[in-house]
Amino acid sequence: MTYKKKEFLNIDNQTIIALCTPSGNGAIAMLRLCGDDAVEIVDKISLLYSKKKLSVFPTHTIHYGRIVSIQSKKEIIDEVLFFLMKAPKTFTGQHTVEISCHNNQYIIEQIIKQAIVAGARIAHPGEFTKRAFLNNKIDLIQAESINDLINAQTELALRKSMSQLQGSLSRHIEQIQQDLFGLLSIIEGGLEFFEEEQQDFEIDKIIRKKLNLIIQKLKNIKSNFSQQQQIKEGIKIAVIGWVNAGKSTLFNSILKKNRAIVTDIEGTTRDSIECSLYKNGNFWLLTDTAGLRQTKDLVEQEGIDRSFEQAEVSDIILLTFDLSKKLNCKQIEIYRNLINKYKNKIIFVGNKLDVENDQFLLLDFINKDQFLKISALHKKGIELLENEIENKIQNIFSKHQSSYLLNKRQYNLILQVENQMKFIEKLIKNKIEYELMAYYLREIIERFSELTGRNINEKMLDRIFNDFCIGK
Ligand code: GDP
Fold first, then answer.
1. Does ligand 1 have an atom closer than 6 angstroms to the CB of 264?
2. Domains of the chain, CATH where assigned
3. Mean pLDDT within 289-318
């Protein structure tokens, strides 16, 4: 059984145009036209300095010229460069012209308008990539990795998306697909290779072994999915600690600007404040939490709950202590609970080094040497702390051995297929007919083919590509 790829899906050849660079400040913008008439459309709206038509030139050449109004060739819209790429050696497999023009909103709109008058239409989100997929230039996993590549928040995510674009995940999926076909052929045709009496026992044994192997491979692919998200979305760092320990001051010192309000009235930071910063190739999502606090001798439960919630969802915790004050029993108990639960995520920060009280470090549950002593107010030790954060990030990243990152769609499909495989495994134990087993397995193969897009319908495709930005 083979799955012919998307033969039932329409490949649209109409020429589309979109701005591929983000709108906003910058010297140059890039517009992309692609489709059957891309080059002819550009011929209609351009005048090259060579005085020739773009269409007469060989593919993969660059030309200098002007975009002009289709009605009056004398009306110059912009001086531009044309990147001519004729089919089939293009991203989409269709004729493509990229126009690099000056980055002015009016110019961009005028070029798009002229192209539309000449026969193009505006591209839908992700339409270029969708065409690349439909023309068998890339599979669906690679198409999705282009989106991941653009949205990567960490250097590692970028590297993994790049490797995925080059087929790292597709190869694993292809291998499992082959295994599934292999298993199906054993179930469908294997019967005749066995003596009657051996038949059931031998086949069951082989099938079970193969099933197990495939389930294991699926498990491996989807392992660490939740951790994979940190790589994709950036590292979440929470500043947690007692009210007035200097969390907001520390938050501001790391951000190098005043984002959180700092006062010496307890409980200033009511809710969590989030800010992201880009450091050494990674996004740090920094959260300043409301803070643990005590009111009229009662330890406020809400603040504690919120701090624990933050601790739970964070990748790194800057557990902040005020070195100038001795902790009371209740404070010690709460800090101790946090440490017991999240030890591996914690960096112990001792703040207010300038007014340190020797009594402070007489805590039995933390080793003195574990503290990174700083003064958030006087910006002392901040760089060391940042290095420590960076070490922790590298430590988190080093645990991700796989060369790819799954998205939700891929993860859910793999999970479904794994469950269906386990279902068959159970049926074997209850002596199921081989015909029925083959039927279930065919269903699984069909579902699995949605991963690479070998078996996918228009609606699913639209859902996937709608997440892309226009111009991709
Ligand atoms: P939060 O409640 O933990 O967010 O604490 P804040 O950042 O609002 O700081 C509480 C008080 O401690 C403020 O008056 C800060 O100026 C002060 N503070 C913060 N860091 C230091 C420090 O390193 N040394 C000293 N002496 N005071 C600090």
1. yes
2. 2-137 (3.30.1360.120), 148-223+405-452 (1.20.120.430), 232-397 (3.40.50.300)
3. 79
